[in-house]
């Protein structure tokens, strides 16, 4: 709990019984849940390939996107996903809102709760913020990234992208390279890849790999050569915004790029390269690698809309999945 901001620490009580469903962590999901969500995403992706992309599935529902941290991909794709499903969408950024006047997360949650939103999507720099929203509103809550804890929809869209590209996840070897210590994407993705039967190796300098992380079911290597054996090289950004002031995790970015950067001479043809974005070209990834045919980075972004449509739809509908897919296809 050392990572929890004092403003929200006293809110992290065990949640009471609730008929609502939230997506706060990949740990909330079983393998069946993931397979159901990926199947739904495939259905929605088909609707996105048509000239008229809008479906009436969530007409009359309200989705609020509440972002306390900067975002391009996650905020835009959640907004587009909700609009593609015909929901009413409100997007609120902390910058320019009453947060700048000192309003607490609890009071913002209570305020937004007055509009009876069906889903609140929240990104926040502090671990546990989605729990605060769940406690003080009647909405289903989706975690769009809380501190270095979790980013579950990123992991789902990554699974979706891999399955679309390679046809399966089970048995693949994924090397996650770079700043694992500060990465919510790494935590969500380790859980997701292991859940779906992939082998995961974390690769990076010792100060950026948390001690004991092997307990999550992955391996660790402190040698960049370890990426050679992987089917997928998943590159992480150096997350300066979560690094402690005064801590020298690496001697310099130039040295980091030289020793740990994923460059063209370190990947082999056919090896798939992924990155959640935003990228620091020339630091953790060379531009030529990011732009190569084997890079799945743009496809990850594209997958985000269909996968987030699936998550919103799944939270708000409780019928058997076969019925839901049939319903979608009936109106598609
Ligand atoms: N991958 C990701 O979360 O990107 P954004 O910060 O742009 O949303």
Could you provide a short overview of the structure?
By secondary structure, this protein is α/β, with parallel strands linked by helices. Helix content is 36%, strand content 14%.
CATH domain fold name of the largest domain: Rossmann fold
Given as residue ranges, the uncertain stretches (5+ residues, pLDDT < 50) are 1-18
Rg value = 20 Å
Bound molecules: phosphoric acid mono(formamide)ester
* Strands, total number: 9
Order of the strands making up the biggest sheet: 7-6-5-8-9
- Examine the secondary-structure arrangement and name the CATH architecture of the largest domain: 3-Layer(aba) Sandwich
Helix content: 25-40%
CATH superfamily of the largest domain: Aspartate/ornithine carbamoyltransferase
Order of helices and strands: HHEHEHEHEHEHEEEHEHHH
Query: Which class of secondary structure composition applies to the elements?
Result: alpha/beta
Number of domains: 2
Largest sheet: 5 strands, parallel
Class of the largest domain in CATH? Alpha Beta
Question: Could you walk me through the main structural features you see in this protein, from its secondary elements to its overall organization?
Answer:
The protein is of the alpha/beta class. The chain has two domains: 6-149 and 304-331, Rossmann fold, CATH 3.40.50.1370; 152-300, 3-Layer(aba) Sandwich (Rossmann fold), CATH 3.40.50. 36% of the residues lie in helices and 14% in strands. The chain contains eleven helices and nine strands. The strands form two sheets. It has a five-stranded parallel sheet, with helices on one face. β5 (173-177), α7 and β6 form a beta-alpha-beta unit. α2 runs parallel beside α11. It is globular and about 55 Å long. Bound molecules: phosphoric acid mono(formamide)ester. Phosphoric acid mono(formamide)ester is lined by residues 71-74, 145, 154, 276-278.
